[in-house]
Design goal:
Structural class: alpha+beta
CATH class of the largest domain: Mainly Beta
Distance between the termini: 65 Å
Mean pLDDT: 79
Radius of gyration: 28 Å
CATH topology of the largest domain: Immunoglobulin-like
CATH architecture of the largest domain: Sandwich
Number of helices: 9
Length: 298
């Protein structure tokens, strides 16, 4: 039997007539973000008790729609609707596999990432099945029930829609600077991994290591700012000085996780995102401005 991420009964009045299982969650292919859910649906043969309670002969599931939520009674993400070839599910006692999809957008993806806070969130699925039985339409329900997507599976799904999946930093680097840049990229890659896993202090701290790897030897002193001087052949002194101030501030922000007195888990996700993205853009800026220059100190 396929794995089950979560399941719940299908109820007709107070009678159980079947069950729904969430088998898998995938990024459904399309031109925009769509969350796909593979469901296993079983409709039982009517019992004598159920037959006495009403007309449920030739019971069939004709439609299945619902709502994906982040909590049992609210925080709706979107509406679930069937997709693909639809075949009515008869009351046979055998499981049929169906697919429903939930159209998303970048804002909803961001909400999911914020809600999960580095972990795998517990989603809730509330379904509204449509049954027929002869000429009647019995009212059935599947109350909101939880299911959990494995952490690695969820990261794979979100990575296909996250804005960073479409955001490419083109960073030209001179041959002399290549070793510095390669080491900085290693730290930035680790910072992004920490960010994905909800280790925000570690993400910020890794940014400082990336900055040190790339810009070591360009520290500001009381008499001169070597970083500003390094940029000035390509841009005016005034702008170079402002970028030097920005680098100094970024170094101060990302140094805190390395300080012994810093409390663990003190950074918010928004701070970690800011630190990681700003560090990446600083690398891109300097790489672009100095691609045809020699390395610092040479």
């Amino acid at each position: 039997m396929p794995r089950t991420l979560g399941e719940h009964d299908i109820m007709l009045s107070h009678h159980r007539i079947g069950a729904v299982r969430v088998l898998n969650a995938t990024p459904y292919s399309g031109a925009f973000p769509v969350f796909g859910l593979s469901l296993g649906v079983t409709v039982q043969k009517p019992t004598p008790e159920l037959l006495k309670a009403g007309t449920v002969e030739a019971l069939e599931l004709r439609d299945l729609r619902g709502e994906l939520r982040l909590s049992e009674n609210g925080n709706a993400i979107g509406f679930a609707q069937p997709v693909g070839d639809w075949t009515p599910v008869a009351a046979s006692g055998y499981e049929s596999q169906l697919q429903v999809v939930v159209p998303l957008d970048p804002w909803r993806v961001t909400r999911i990432e914020a809600w999960r806070n580095g972990g795998a969130p517990r989603f809730y699925l509330h379904l509204w099945p449509t049954f027929t039985s002869g000429g009647s339409w019995p009212m059935c329900q599947v109350s909101a029930f939880p299911f959990e997507v494995p952490h690695l599976d969820l990261l794979n799904i979100l990575s296909k829609w996250s804005p960073r999946a479409y955001h490419v930093l083109e960073v030209p680097v001179s041959e002399v600077d290549r070793e510095r840049f390669a080491l900085a990229v290693v730290h930035v890659t680790k910072a992004n991994a920490h960010l994905e896993s909800g280790r925000y202090d570690e993400a910020v701290g890794e940014c400082r290591l990336a900055i040190d790897a790339m810009f070591n030897g360009l520290e500001s002193t009381g008499k001169e700012d070597r970083f500003s001087a390094y940029l000035q052949p390509r841009i005016p002194e005034e702008r170079a000085d402002e970028y030097a101030k920005l680098l100094t501030a970024l170094k101060d922000i990302t140094h805190k996780p390395h300080h012994p007195s810093s409390a663990p888990h003190q950074h918010w996700r928004a701070e970690a995102v800011f630190a990681v993205q700003t560090t990446q853009h600083m690398l891109a800026l300097v790489g672009s401005l100095t691609a045809d220059r020699q390395a610092p100190g040479t």
